[in-house]
Design brief:
The chain is of the alpha/beta class and 499 residues long. The chain folds into two domains: 367 residues, 3-Layer(aba) Sandwich (Aminopeptidase); 110 residues, Alpha-Beta Plaits, CATH 3.30.70. It has 14 helices and twelve strands. Strands 1-2-4-3-5-12 form a six-stranded mixed β-sheet. The radius of gyration is 24 Å and the shape is globular.
């Protein structure tokens, strides 16, 4: 296995062994290695900002400054999102886009490196899915490709899309609707993982997130309840109605809810009730079919209780569609770069961490996942909408400890560790090499587009968003304003210096 930390000459020979003798990739790898400290600094800075979706203000400002310093044009605010970051270098065709995100999760604050629970700021958000590493990989790879484009006068455009609020499935459907991807020829979606992997076909689930608000009439629960119209009764009837429907849905469906407004006190008939639903399925038409049934149940619940109902779609996502042609190209670069060479200290830490969680102590992944060994996930990601409009591959890079699940505070232990730093460097190399393949091979791009046409022929894209839907600008604002003053005390003042 060819290790990620080999020098440029050895990597050039490695590519020759894989039938890809390409000094341009060797130059890109050299640029990544030379700037490994700066790449790590980007991920570390983003970790301490730990901003929730729609509130990525410091993160967006930092990325804008960093990308402009290395020669990229950066726009903020696209699609109606103040924290949407769109960076671009070059001009003309082909136009390849890196697609990723930088948001954190509620209550994920954790002292990095501590296997025991130890929040930096109690109750505050934190990067317990490691999205901070995405900025490091994307910027590191983009800088390396820019250097190659300058040296070899390569035509084309490289863009980076940092979409806000991925954890709430918010931004990408809006960005697609706003036309940000209309001129793109291909995209690569990146995400942290416990190993290198890519894949093709349907990678995860479609999802629709919506809030159902019922309005009734208040009354005294003991004196004149017959005059009331109970909005929380409507919420409960909707919940029970969908529960009775589950038997008649496909086995692939998933639906989950939380009651967000459930009354004030028992002796007051509530005139306001609200329930928030996520509806998922293996493809977009099935998810939409399930959601339409849920809406009918809500209408029935309102009729039964004499209340009125209003529905707001909060977010939506198509399943990611992995392009096989692009995935095959990514896999060749994964195999050529290989997993990082982990130190014994890193392996011991990983094993100790796994043992502390009651997991099998297998340590860090020694070799990449074999091609195609990735079943469809039940989770969702708002980047899926991009993949039904642009041929897209996906790249997971090894920067977390195997078995440590995301969306748990434990996943916030390692995103700025040496494990994450090595994974960022390896991921940046594979991403840079894959971008160069798409930039320089017309044949590869034509094959990817033909694959895309075949994959989407029977399922034309449609947006889940209502025509009047607008970005939820207030999402997570109160929580970030409450915790940001204490979080600022932990901000990192180190800046990346690319060379």
């Amino acid at each position: 296995m060819i290790r990620a930390m080999l020098g440029a000459t050895a990597l050039a020979l490695a590519f020759a062994a894989h039938g890809q003798s390409d000094e341009r990739k060797a130059l890109a790898f050299e640029a990544v290695e030379r700037n490994a400290d700066s790449i790590a600094t980007i991920g570390d800075r983003l970790y301490y900002y730990a901003e929730l979706g729609m509130q990525e203000q410091e993160s967006a400002k930092f990325l804008k400054e960093t990308l402009e310093a290395i020669g990229f044009k950066v726009d903020l605010g696209g699609g109606g999102f103040p924290t949407n970051v769109w960076a671009q270098y070059g001009s003309g065709k082909p136009h390849i886009v890196i697609v990723t995100e930088i948001d954190a999760l509620p209550e994920g604050s954790q002292t990095p490196g501590s296997i025991e629970r130890k929040p930096l700021v109690k109750g505050a958000p934190g990067h317990m899915e490691g999205h901070n590493t995405h900025g490091a990989v994307a910027v590191g790879a983009a800088y390396a490709v820019k250097r190659v484009m300058e040296r070899y006068k390569l035509p084309g455009t490289i863009s980076i899309s940092f979409g806000p609020a991925e954890e709430q499935l918010v931004s990408r459907p809006f960005l697609v609707r706003a036309g940000l991807f209309k001129d793109a020829d291909a995209a690569i979606l990146i995400h942290i993982g416990e190993n290198f992997s890519t894949g093709y076909g349907l990678q995860n689930y479609a999802a629709i997130s919506a809030k159902f608000t019922f309005h009734g009439k208040t009354a005294h629960g003991a004196v004149n309840p017959w005059e009331g119209r109970d909005a929380v009764d409507a919420v409960e009837l909707m919940d029970m109605g969908f529960d009775k429907l589950r038997e008649h849905l496909r086995p692939s469906q998933r639906a989950h809810r939380t009651i967000t407004i459930g009354g004030i006190q028992p002796n007051i008939i509530p005139d306001l009730g609200q329930i928030w639903w996520f509806v998922r399925d293996a493809n977009a038409p099935w998810a939409k079919e399930n959601f339409d049934k849920l809406v009918n149940i809500a209408r029935g619940a309102a009729m039964m209780t004499g209340t009125t109902m209003e529905m707001e779609i909060v977010a939506s996502a198509w399943p990611q569609l992995g392009n096989r042609v692009i995935a095959e190209a990514i896999q060749k670069n994964i195999d050529a770069v290989g997993n990082p060479k982990w130190s014994e200290e890193e392996q011991k830490f990983a094993r100790d961490f796994q043992s502390a969680l009651g997991l099998k102590a297998v340590g860090l992944a020694p070799a990449p996942v074999k091609f195609g060994a990735r079943p469809q996930s039940f989770a969702s990601n708002d980047s899926g909408d991009v993949t039904w409009n642009v041929p897209a591959g996906n790249l997971n890079f090894p920067a977390s400890v195997p078995g440590v699940n995301y969306h748990n505070w434990q996943a916030a232990v390692t995103p700025i560790s040496s494990i994450a730093h090595k994974g960022e460097v390896a991921g940046a190399k594979v991403l840079a090499a894959s971008l160069l393949d798409l930039l320089t091979s017309r044949e590869l791009l034509d094959k990817a587009k033909a694959q895309f046409r075949d994959d989407t022929r029977d399922t034309p894209y449609f947006s889940f968003l209502p025509a009047d839907a607008k970005p939820p600008l207030e999402l997570n604002r109160e929580m970030m304003e409450r915790f940001r003053p204490e979080m600022r005390k932990h901000y990192l003042d180190r800046r990346p210096q690319f060379k």
